[in-house]
Amino acid sequence: MSQYSAEQAAEIHCALTVQTFQTLQQSNADQVELHIAGDLQHHFFRQALFAQAALKPQVSGDLGDKMRQALNNSLEQYQYCLLVGSDCPALTTTVLEQAFLALEGLALEGNGQQPGTDLVLIPAEDGGYVLIGCRCPLPDNVFEGIDWGESTVLAQTLANLKQQHLSYTLLPTLWDVDHPEDVVRWQQEGGAINL
């Protein structure tokens, strides 16, 4: 997002985080956790909006390490868990419900989903994914060799899942905010950001 100043980029990120959190709060999730790289006591996270969130520090390592640890830690308390980025304004409670149903084995017939799939993913238009959820602990090497930030992320992840003999369901593709034109798209679709 090089056309934006650091302050504007932070404002965009904060607005996306708020929108994502509000969507998660409206879902049927038992608990919403925010995994944060940085200061858990930052004034942004002290807003009343986040009072019901469980704030957790991100572990060290690459994105795969952070994701695997967050998912596996959640599975110590819950039967299913979803992990979403804060940059997908197209995420809705309906989409979240579909992801939970895929994991629970209650997905609607006729859409090719396997009952009780191990993982569920929502592809992103750019070749990554905006959501990953699971019902079983993930092995240490499940995200090994992923070129994070590249258009091959989904394909590489699916190859790893197949190698690990983990079943998965893909839900319909969504878009996320990675570039200035994505911010414009978000604004055109009613995003709560004025720059």
* Beta fraction: 5-15%
Question: What's the story with the biggest beta sheet?
Answer: 4 strands, mixed
Helicity, as a percent range: 25-40%
CATH class: Alpha Beta
Kindly name the structural category: alpha/beta
Order of helices and strands: HEEHEHEEHEH
Query: In CATH terms, what is the architecture?
Result: Alpha-Beta Complex
Stretches where pLDDT falls below 50 for ≥5 residues? none
Tally of discrete structural domains: 1
| Rg | 17 Å
- For the largest beta sheet, what order do the strands appear in spatially? 3-5-4-6
Beta-strand segment tally: 6
State the shape: globular
- The number of helices is 5
CATH superfamily: Spore Coat Polysaccharide Biosynthesis Protein SpsA, Chain A
Oligomer status: single chain
Distance between the termini: 13 Å
Mean pLDDT: 89
CATH topology: Spore Coat Polysaccharide Biosynthesis Protein SpsA, Chain A
What does this protein structure show overall?
The protein has 195 residues and is α/β, with parallel strands linked by helices. The chain has one domain (6-188): Alpha-Beta Complex (Spore Coat Polysaccharide Biosynthesis Protein SpsA, Chain A), CATH 3.90.550.10. Helix content is 34%, strand content 13%. The chain is built from five helices and six strands, in the order αββαβαββαβα. The chain has helices at residues 6-26, 63-75, 93-104, 153-163, 180-188; strands spanning 33-36, 54-57, 81-84, 119-123, 129-134, 168-170. The longest helix is centred in the first third of the chain and has 21 residues, at 6-26.
